[in-house]
Amino acid sequence: MTVLAIDIGGTKLAAAVVDASLRITHQREIPTPASKTPEALSAALEAVISPLKACAERVAIAATGVIHQGMLTAINPENLGGLAHFPLTETVSNLSGLPCLAVNDAQAAAWAEYHVRKDAVSEMVFLTVSTGVGGGVIINGQLQVGQGGLAGHLGHTLADPDGPRCGCGRTGCVEAIASGRAIAAAATGMLAGLDAKAIFAKASEGDPMAKALIARSAQTLVRLIADLKAVTDCQLVVIGGSVGLANGYLPLVQEFLAQEPAAFHTALAAAHYRHDAGLIGAALLAQGAEA
């Protein structure tokens, strides 16, 4: 089955045609609308769907936020605000004329990453560190979604009770410290106003503040990984996202995890599908791929 896969993130909206062999063709990408209103998102979806819909038999969407019964709710309005109860599958079906399913983007990516490792692991966690921090959990070969779609929103677990307030309304979430948005927000002095990509560039040049901001992110992620090991006994944690896949980030995570007690160690790996994991995972779910 050929699937039109769409990945809606806090920064970009990507679409691609994915065939039965998981080959990606006709890939398109546009910025996520700045206003992040229902009208703006609908217009952006139409822009990426229209040139590609004739190539596909159905549509699969991987989107940031909570997906429940085809509705999208932004858990962190700073990442994708103004979209409480947005009728995602209905909107896309109407725009494309094709059947549609939707799932959280990190859940979709988790399924893709598990799919290439299912002969080696049955318990796996995927963590994306990007504009926000998300996750997907595989237990006994099954993707955990939850009754209301919230399962895997690991970026909204507690990292520091005295930390910054998160856009979700909680204080001290992992996302509020480790995400690309949080790295940029914590920058001061000469780094103030730079985005995470620019801060990583400064770190590669040896800037001590940039290196400290990235280390803080990696240490926070490691505390989450240790907690996840205790809760799920995961055999592997796969890390993706623009921050998670940035040069030098995974080795930092590995270094800090090695400092934790041995019981909380687990294998770490970079996302096999890199930035296309959400697209591939959504397509797999639409194709009915079994574990």
Automatic annotation (TrEMBL):
GO molecular function terms attached to this record: ATP binding; metal ion binding; N-acylmannosamine kinase activity
PROSITE patterns reported for this sequence: ROK
EC number: 2.7.1.60
NCBIfam families linked to this entry: NactlManKinNanK, PRK05082.1
Family: Belongs to the ROK (NagC/XylR) family. NanK subfamily.
Subunit structure: Homodimer.
UniProt protein name: N-acetylmannosamine kinase
Organism: Cronobacter turicensis
